Amino acid sequence: MVVQMSKRTTKKYLFRGSTINWPGSVSSQSLPRTSVTTNPIKAILFALCCGYTNGYKSDKQIIYIIERSKLKGISTGKNWLAKVEEEIAFEIKPSDYISLCEGYIFAEDAINIILSMRLTIPAIIDDSLFLDALKNTPAMSNVNIEQFYLLAQPFLNKP
After folding, report:
1. CA distance 49 to 129
2. Nearest to 15, CA basis, from 95, 127, 124, 98
C-alpha cells in the first residue's frame, strides 16, 4: 500500500487505547473526562494494559481514532502524567467521545501497522511495567502519526 501524506502535517489525530464496550471508569463518567493521546504507540500500550488488568483477550483490546477537529469546543483538563502519556483530557464522557470517533482498530492490527513502519513498541508483560513502557516510548513524528492514521483506515470498525 502506498501512503500519500500532506507536505505539512500536525498532530491532528488523537488515539484512545481501551477495550471494547468499556464505558470508562465511574469518575470519568461523572467528571466527565476522557483521556486520549497524540501517540498511537502509547494508545496501544493503554489498550494492552486495559486488557491485562481486566483479563481480556486480544479481541477486546482496541484503539479509538478521532480527528482532533471533532472535539473542537470541548474543554480540556490536566493530568499529572500528561507529558509522559502525551495525553489530553477532554471534558466529555467516554461514551460521548466514542460516538464522535471515526471508529476503532484492534490493538493487534495497530501493532502490526507500527511494526510495518519499522517502529518499536516497548514490551509490557503485565501492568506493573506499564509506566516504564510509557516513559520509554519515544514521541512519534507528525509524519509517522499521519502514516499510522492512513494505514489504519482499512482496519477501521465503526463504534
Report:
1. 9
2. 98
Query: What pTM was estimated for this model as a whole?
Result: 0.84
Dist. CA 139–CA 20, nearest whole Å = 26
Domain annotation covers residue 3:
no
159 within some domain: no
C-alpha cell at 152: 489504519
**Within a domain: 62:** yes
Report the alpha-carbon distance of residue 104 to residue 123 in Å, rounded: 22
Full domain range(s) for residue 120: 13-152
Inside any domain, residue 94:
yes
149's CB contacts (< 8 A; 6+ apart) are 13, 40, 65
Question: What is the total count of domains within the chain?
Answer: 1
Do residues 103 and 83 lie in contact, with contact meaning Cβ atoms separated by under 8 Å?
no
What is the rounded distance in angstroms from the CA atom of residue 97 to the CA atom of residue 37? 13
Check: CB of residue 37 under 8 Å from CB of residue 81: no
Cα distances from 53 to residues 9, 62, 114, 118, 152, in angstroms, run 35, 14, 23, 28, 25
Query: Could you read off the pLDDT of 111-146 as tens digits, one per residue?
Result: 999 999 999 888 776 667 788 888 888 889 999 999
